[in-house]
Amino acid sequence: MNTTTITNDTIEKTIEINAPVSRVWRALTDSQQFGEWFRVKIDGPFVAGKRSLGNMLVPGYEHVKWNVVIQKIEPERLFSYTWHPFCVKADKDYSDEIPTLVELTLEPTAAGTRLTVVESGFSKVPAYRRDEAFRSNSGGWVAQLENIARYVEQKA
Pick from 55, 96, 121, 125: most CB atoms within 10 A? Predict the structure, then answer.
């Protein structure tokens, strides 16, 4: 079951994964495993309150920097971070913009795990790029949830 909810400010997507919460949790919070399914080379482990840096590995987007601040790591329940969505111009500094918040929550189900991603704060993205960032991330989260499901189910 995959569901999508979209408002002007928030993207919410859910997927059911045929794997236990503990396995999905490791794929989310181990930066090396996260990098494999998200297609990003991350420089070190995720630590709440700390910046996580790296480079995207998606073909055509290798110039895009991974630059997030880990907000919360609540074991087997919630992993969250802030970032600047759809920052694809290598010569643009996005640091003066207010980042969006990405929250990934896990719930056990009879078949395994329900993973929900909520990205909020698009109303604060500058107007000149808000719609493009919203559309891109909306589609991006569909692909990333499919990526993590495939990754976890193949390596469970």
Answer: 125
